[in-house]
Design brief:
Length: 417
């Protein structure tokens, strides 16, 4: 979102005009920002001969977003068969899709095998069953390096108590399974968690994975996950991707030389690619003054934008309708019959009923976590691509809410009687 000539825009498109055309609440995505972030990672790791960026699509799975990243040359990181199917619908080659589920049954893994996607397994039980049923099918193994990273306990997935991955201390057991079943291990994978604050912590986990890799002679790639932090506040801390790229590239290249061949370096960024590209627009329903607080109540809530309530996540809020208004302090809240606070004691330009508020960093895990709580409709999504506005998901209707419900005839008759 940019401020120019007295108005807030995305790639030159006025945001207020989008709410007039498509209504509010509304998700708006800037395709140019997604491209810039993808190019930035490629530049940071340009010293690596084989580099593969797999977009972690759980962040935002709209088909148009998937097609954009496929067009850029990205692969896809998926965590469910539904995401695999969406990736195939978006035109990804199965070999460019990595399936990394957690706590799923073998039936789901088997389905992924039939679709030809790459398989990433994160527990010994499924690894044994997979090896018994799919002799000769290449597999990637997800290891847990027991490194704590992430800005919130809910997104720190590499620590010793995490359900994700096979403990690095269980590698000897893994090797016994691999040798007994003659498994072809083509890759090793790790993911420490989102919001990496310190590159050195990440590099510690890299060393752990590289040491484990020496026990697997037939590797084709190493997947170091992601978790690169983006700024949520002006001047906020972010992962220095350029510095990390230089340090990790040098270490990875040295490892490949010792290993005896060039491996592919993989990452699976999600938030890093799409978070800053998204803006969530809401309309102010009411300004309510109490003895202690001035509330700006908007036409949305945790049903559309749960990250502030779920993760205590900070999202910058701007009154784009009144940019020159006198600064005042507001607590911005939603319309759900539960406490759903977007921001406490935020300084905003004076908010009037009807004003449009914009919430930043809305591209990742925002629409994807939306629900129909309180039987509210989920909002529309718009993408600005090369200066043109595209509706990429319409707003839901009552028909959508009823679409999967099945009526009991006797109860219908009792109503009609």
């Amino acid at each position: 979102m940019q401020f120019k000539n007295g108005r807030y825009t995305v790639s030159g498109v006025d945001l207020i005009s989008l709410t007039e055309e498509f209504g509010a609440p509304l998700y708006v995505y800037d395709a140019n920002k997604m491209k810039d972030q993808y190019d930035r990672i490629h530049r940071a790791f340009s010293g690596v001969e084989r580099l593969r960026i797999n977009y972690a699509c759980k962040a935002l799975t709209n088909l148009n977003v998937l097609r954009l990243f496929r067009q850029l040359g990205s692969g896809l990181d998926t965590v469910s068969m539904q995401e695999v199917d969406l990736g195939l619908m978006a035109g990804f080659d199965p070999h460019d899709i990595l399936f990394t589920p957690n706590c799923v049954g073998l039936d789901e893994v088997n389905e992924a095998v039939t679709k030809g996607v790459r398989i990433n397994i994160d527990n010994i039980s499924i690894l044994e069953q997979f090896g018994d049923q799919h002799r000769g099918v290449p597999v990637c193994i997800r290891l847990n390096p027991h490194i704590m990273a992430g800005g919130n306990s809910k997104i720190s997935v590499g620590h010793i108590d995490s359900k994700f991955g096979i403990s690095i201390h269980q590698v000897p057991h893994v090797l016994k399974v691999v040798n007994a079943l003659d498994l072809k291990v083509e890759g090793l994978h790790m993911h420490t968690g989102s919001d990496i604050l310190d590159a050195q912590v990440f590099l510690q986990a890299v060393e752990i994975l590289l040491r484990a890799a020496t026990d697997f002679p037939d590797l084709d790639y190493l997947d170091f996950g992601s978790g690169f932090k983006v700024p949520y506040k002006e001047g906020g801390i972010a992962t220095d991707i350029e510095d990390l790229g230089q340090q990790l590239s040098e270490r990875f290249n040295a490892f490949c030389k010792d290993y005896g061949r060039e491996l592919e370096l993989m990452f699976e960024p999600g938030k890093f690619l799409v978070s800053e590209a998204g803006t969530f627009l809401v309309r102010t329903n009411v300004v309510k003054t109490t003895p202690a607080t001035v509330f700006a109540g908007v036409d949305s809530g945790l049903n559309h934008f749960i990250r502030p309530m779920f993760y205590d996540a900070y999202h910058h809020i701007t009154n784009i309708s009144n940019p020159k208004g006198k600064p005042r302090i507001y607590t911005v809240v939603g319309y759900i019959c539960e406490t759903d606070t977007f921001g406490i004691n935020r300084q905003l330009s004076e908010v009037r009923e009807g004003d449009i508020l914009a919430m930043a960093n809305a591209g990742a895990y925002c629409y994807m976590m939306a629900s129909n709580y309180n039987s509210r409709y989920r909002p529309a999504e718009v993408m600005v691509l090369d200066g043109k506005v595209h509706l990429i998901r319409r707003r839901e209707t009552m028909e959508d809410l009823l679409n999967t419900q099945v009526e009991i005839p006797e109860l219908v008759e009792s109503v009609q009687a």
